Amino acid sequence: MESWILTLAVFSPLVGAAVMLLWPKEDESSLKGIALIASLASAATGVWILFNFDFDHTGTLQFVVDKSWIDVINSRYIVGLDGISLPLLLLSQLVMVLVIVYSWNHFPEPHNPKAFLILMLVLEVGMNGTFVAQDLILFFVFFEIVLLPMYFMIGVWGGPDRQYAAIKFFLFTLFGSALMILSFLAVFFLADGTAGGAEVVRTFDMRALSGGGAVASIARSTQLWIFGGMFIGFAIKVPMFPFHTWLPDAHTEAPTQGSVILAAILLKLGTYGFVRIAIPILPDAAEEWAPWIGLLAVVGIIYGALGCLAQTDMKRLIAFSSIAHMGFVMLGIATLTDFGINAAVFGMVAHGLITGMLFFLAGSVKERYHTLELSRLGGLLVQAPKMGWILGFCAMASLGLPGLAGFWGEFPAILSAYNPAEGLPVETFRTFMVVAALGTVLAAGYLLWMLQRTAFGTPSEEFAEQQIHDVNTPEWIAWTPLLVLILAFGVYPHAIFRVTDGAVTALLGG
Amino acid sequence: MLLNQFLVLSAVLFCTGVYGVIARRNGVLVLMSVELILNAVNINFVAFAYWHGDVSGQVFALFVITVAAAEVGIGLAIVLLIYRNRSSIDLGQMEQLRG
Amino acid sequence: MTTMLENVWVIPAIPFATFWGILFFGKRLPHKGAELGIGALSLCFALSLVTGAAWIDRVDNPPVSDHTTEQATEHATGGSEIDGTEHAQVAGGDSGTGIGVLGAAAIEEAEEHIAVDAVVQQWTWWQNGGIEFTVGTMVDGLTAMMLLVVTVVSLLVHIYSTDYVGGDRRYTHFFAFLSLFSASMLMLVMAENTLQMIVGWELVGLCSFVLIGHWWEEKPNSDAALKAFLTNRVGDIGMLIGVITLFFAANQTWSIVEINSMANAGQISHTALLVASLCLTAAVMSKSGQFFLHTWLPDAMAGPTPVSALIHAATMVVAGVFMVARLYGVFWDGFSIGTSNINVLAVVGGFTTIVGGVLAFVQADIKKVLAYSTISQLGYMVMALGVGAWTAGLFHLFTHAFFKACLFLGSGSVSHAVHSFDMVKDMGGMRKWMPHTFRTFMIGSIALAGIPPLAGFWSKDEILAGASQLGGGGDGYPVVLVMGFITAGLTAAYMTRCVYLTFFGEYRGHTPVEKLHESGPRITLPLWILAGLAIVAGLANLPGDSIVPDGWALRFEHFVEPTGAYFPAISHPHFSGLTALVSIAVAGLGVAIGYAFYFRQLGPHGLTQRSTVAKAGYTFLENRYYLDHLYTGVIAGGTKGPIARAAYWTNQNIIDGIVNGVGISARRIGLWVYDKIDQGIVDGTVNGLGLGAGAGGEVLRETQTGRVQQYASVLFGSTLVLALVIALVIV
Question: For residue C331, which of C395, C250, C397, C276 has the smallest C-alpha distance?
Answer without folding.
Answer: C276
